[in-house]
């Protein structure tokens, strides 16, 4: 269903008689996808729910020579094959193995394909965010951020998911929602190049996912029990069963961890959380032309908000519950046309709870309750004829929002009205007017950076908490059409999409998209180039309160934004150029250059170190970079891939919408925290035979994202002891500690081990911003999928070490957009599995 394909056909002998009981297999040597079926008494075979990709097909039966050919699945219209076996000995028998040249794809957009077999072997260190980890480790140009977030090609979380054809453009991070579990995914196509016209909303990364199905399954199941560091306990269970007409796949997962979110201190404190998910896919295929499916998903996240040494008594928590129901109906007309209709409804309900004692929260007490309900449908017609592969469709949906938010300042030094003669904050709880500072205390002066709107909600000065409660809705519809035209080795993709957005703001986007690819078979090279115009929609999470701020807006500009203006959709022009190159028959290189120019570019503002984030937008952005992936086939049990990315992310102020809680950033050009010079992930795996023990090694390198909080020595000296200790601040031979902050530094020998502070006088928001220090992280796994070598009931065992060297590194530090979070310390994981 969705964008998954179907391959079916008949196997014949030279006299046109059917061949029953023959083996027919499709495989992809890069992703590891492999399916085997037997022909029925009529010689028919069928592969359903096949992810879009290139495959090598072979068929064999006793007395016949083996048949081999390539099949490309780039349409949901069923592909009908008539295969003829030749008698054994009538021709020279040559065994043709699938190699890298078989999987070169003549599509004009960069993408990576990941199969279930690879997904289940990848290391995952972010509890409740295994899908995010898998995407970050598999897609080039995707940079890891804290708490399961990631930056795809220079944007923050600008990702759209298509789950069996259901469009989801809201955040799927555990801070906002609950993700579909990895063991429910059959495959993912991660589109990082120019998106086809059928995809919209947020297009820096499109995750086109196909879930697992019970069709044609006689009954398979698995149970995995895990225990690891930080008291992490989890279980993953799945069951698939069915016939050619009915199928059911069920996945049920639970976990609990003492480090659920990435923490603002290397040692986790107040970081317990748990997660539970239930996914059920039901398929019904009454005949060869009609098929139905229903996806049911329910999930829950509960976690504590991690604290720092500056917040010893804080006890803030969050709970998120999610349900999702989507359906699908497909009707095949003739041999060329497929109709697809996909209705859906999804709801996230979030509660954020403050400490029972408001003044235990520092620097503010926060409470929130939000609902996000999204429902609608998508319908399209796919038509394949001759050199054309067309699809026309529409997407209609409404998102209903309900937001309630409470905030009260509990730290008198956070927004002081008055400063001492030396510039230190003064409590003076009775003073709310800066003009009264001098009369309240000799030498006291007004705070030049005072945010007047916060004084009224400062509980230390007799203020009352801010209370916000509102409801709204966003109506969207889209029409799209696209055609992939084949001229021999040349492929041309053209498309047009029209989006209408009507919420707190209204806009319409007309989006032409075009791409060309050429396959030079002699050299094993595919060249491609493309252009896409996209319509980028605002984030829905906290959209109402973010659009109510600004001068003359919510509580007289409580949050210090430039102006009150609802967030508006953005428009982007994107150019891509790249190539695929087969290296002999052993490997494939896929490289892509991208350039994105966006008017009205989006990001999030983080409220202190909480998981509460508010959407914001900037006047424009210019993002460019290079992404590359090198993948090998299975070479005598060894398989590897390397992803790399280089991104320049330049944003241009001022902010033109949304909520920035702290003072506004520069109005000129600056590098946002998505900017990183180099990201690299290498994954190596060796397994001599299918049932042999295996070992895997992962090396991750990040050159360090922008972190603008410490541009100079003065900023470092103004940090608290805990903050100085977090970045490893030093002066001469003295290092800051929790009990001994560095308050003065007269020499030039200063710096930080986890943060690069620009040399004196060299800091520049665009050309030389402060950055997180580079880091190397190493993970290793070893295990076996068949411990006792049983035929049907197999026992698996696995042991994993994440961050082997116990590298103490930061994702970010006091970031306006992300807060402060450490990479997880060395983590051990042990897993015992049962498969039948």
UniProtKB/TrEMBL annotation:
The keyword Methyltransferase does not apply. SUPFAM superfamilies: Porins (SSF56935), Starch-binding domain-like (SSF49452). The keyword Membrane applies. InterPro entries: Beta-barrel_TonB_sf, Carb-bd-like_fold, Plug_dom_sf. Keywords: Cell outer membrane, Membrane, Receptor. Pfam families: CarboxypepD_reg. It is found in: Cell outer membrane. GO terms for molecular function: carbohydrate binding. Its main location: membrane. Gene3D superfamilies: Carboxypeptidase-like, regulatory domain, TonB-dependent receptor, beta-barrel domain, TonB-dependent receptor, plug domain. It comes from the Bacteria. GO terms for cellular component: cell outer membrane. This is TonB-dependent receptor.
């Amino acid at each position: 269903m969705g964008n998954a394909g179907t391959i079916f056909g008949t196997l014949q002998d030279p006299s046109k008689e059917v061949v029953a009981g023959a083996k027919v297999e499709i495989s992809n040597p890069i992703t590891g996808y492999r399916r085997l079926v037997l022909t029925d008494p009529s010689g028919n075979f069928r592969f359903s729910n096949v992810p879009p990709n290139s495959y090598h097909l072979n068929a064999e039966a006793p007395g016949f020579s083996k048949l081999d050919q390539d099949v490309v699945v780039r349409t949901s219209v069923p592909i009908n094959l008539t295969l003829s076996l030749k008698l054994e000995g009538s021709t020279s028998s040559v065994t043709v193995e699938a190699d890298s040249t078989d999987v070169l794809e003549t599509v004009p957009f960069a993408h990576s394909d990941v199969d279930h077999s690879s997904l289940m072997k990848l290391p995952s260190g972010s509890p409740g965010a295994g899908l995010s980890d898998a995407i970050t480790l598999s897609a080039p140009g995707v940079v890891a951020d804290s708490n399961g977030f990631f930056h795809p090609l220079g944007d923050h979380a600008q990702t759209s998911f298509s789950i069996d054809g259901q469009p989801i453009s809201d955040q799927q991070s555990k801070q906002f929602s609950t993700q579909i579990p990895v063991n429910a995914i059959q495959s993912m196509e991660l589109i990082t190049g120019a998106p086809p016209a059928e995809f919209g909303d947020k297009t820096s990364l499109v995750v086109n996912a196909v879930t697992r199905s019970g069709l044609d399954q006689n009954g398979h199941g698995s149970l995995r029990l895990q225990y690891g560091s930080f008291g992490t306990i989890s279980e993953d269970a799945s069951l698939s069963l069915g016939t050619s007409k009915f199928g059911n796949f069920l996945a049920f997962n639970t976990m609990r961890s003492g480090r659920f979110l990435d923490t603002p201190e290397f040692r986790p404190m107040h970081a317990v959380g748990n997660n539970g998910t239930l996914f059920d896919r039901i398929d019904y295929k009454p005949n060869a032309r009609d098929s139905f499916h229903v996806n049911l998903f329910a999930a829950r996240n509960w976690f504590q908000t991690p604290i720092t040494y500056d917040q010893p008594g804080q006890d803030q928590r969050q709970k998120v519950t999610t349900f999702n129901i989507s359906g699908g109906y497909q009707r095949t007309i003739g041999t060329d046309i497929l109709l697809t209709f996909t209705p859906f409804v999804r709801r996230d309900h979030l509660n954020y709870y403050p400490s029972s004692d408001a003044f235990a929260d520092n620097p503010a007490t926060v409470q929130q309750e939000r609902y996000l309900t999204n429902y609608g449908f998508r319908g399209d017609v796919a038509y394949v004829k001759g050199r054309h592969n067309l699809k026309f469709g529409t997407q209609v949906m409404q998102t209903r929002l309900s937001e309630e938010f409470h905030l009260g300042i509990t730290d008198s030094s956070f927004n002081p009205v008055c400063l001492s003669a030396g510039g230190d904050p003064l409590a003076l709880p009775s003073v709310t007017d800066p003009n009264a500072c001098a009369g309240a205390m000799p030498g006291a002066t007004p705070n030049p950076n005072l945010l007047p709107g916060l004084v009224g909600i400062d509980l230390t000065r007799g203020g009352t908490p801010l209370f916000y409660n509102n409801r709204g809705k966003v109506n969207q519809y889209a029409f799209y059409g696209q055609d992939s035209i084949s001229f021999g080795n040349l492929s041309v993709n053209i498309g047009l999409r029209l989006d209408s957005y009507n919420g707190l703001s209204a806009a319409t986007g007309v989006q032409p998209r075009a791409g060309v690819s050429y396959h030079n078979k002699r050299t094993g090279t595919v060249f491609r180039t493309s252009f896409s115009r996209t319509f980028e929609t605002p984030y829905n999470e906290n959209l109402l309160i973010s659009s109510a701020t600004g001068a003359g807006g919510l509580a007289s500009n409580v949050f210090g934004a430039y102006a009150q203006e609802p967030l508006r959709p953005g428009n982007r022009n994107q150019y891509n150029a790249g190539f695929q190159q087969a290296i002999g028959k052993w490997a494939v290189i896929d490289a892509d250059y991208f350039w994105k120019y966006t008017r009205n570019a989006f990001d999030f503002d983080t409220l202190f170190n909480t998981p509460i984030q508010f959407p914001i937008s900037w006047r424009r952005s210019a993002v460019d970079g290079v992404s590359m992936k090198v993948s090998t086939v299975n070479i005598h049990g060894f398989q590897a891939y390397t992803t790399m990315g280089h991104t320049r992310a330049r944003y241009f102020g001022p902010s033109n919408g949304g909520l920035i809680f702290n003072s506004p950033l520069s109005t000129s050009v600056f590098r946002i925290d998505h900017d990183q010079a180099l990201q690299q992930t290498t994954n190596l795996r060796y397994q001599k035979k299918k049932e042999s023990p295996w070992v895997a090694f992962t090396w991750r390198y990040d050159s360090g994202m922008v972190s603008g909080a410490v541009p100079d020595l003065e900023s470092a000296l103004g940090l608290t002891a805990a903050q100085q200790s977090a970045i490893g601040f030093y002066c001469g031979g003295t290092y800051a500690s929790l009990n001994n902050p560095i308050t003065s530094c007269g020499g030039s020998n200063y710096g930080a081990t986890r943060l690069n502070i620009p040399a004196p006088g060299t800091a520049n928001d665009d050309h030389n911003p402060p950055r997180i220090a580079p880091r190397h992280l190493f993970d290793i796994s070893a295990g076996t999928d068949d411990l006792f070598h049983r035929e049907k009931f197999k026992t698996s065992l696995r042991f994993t070490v994440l961050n082997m060297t116990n590298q103490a590194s930061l994702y970010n530090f006091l970031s306006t957009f992300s807060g402060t979070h450490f990479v997880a310390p060395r983590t051990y994981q042990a897993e015992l599995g049962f498969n039948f």
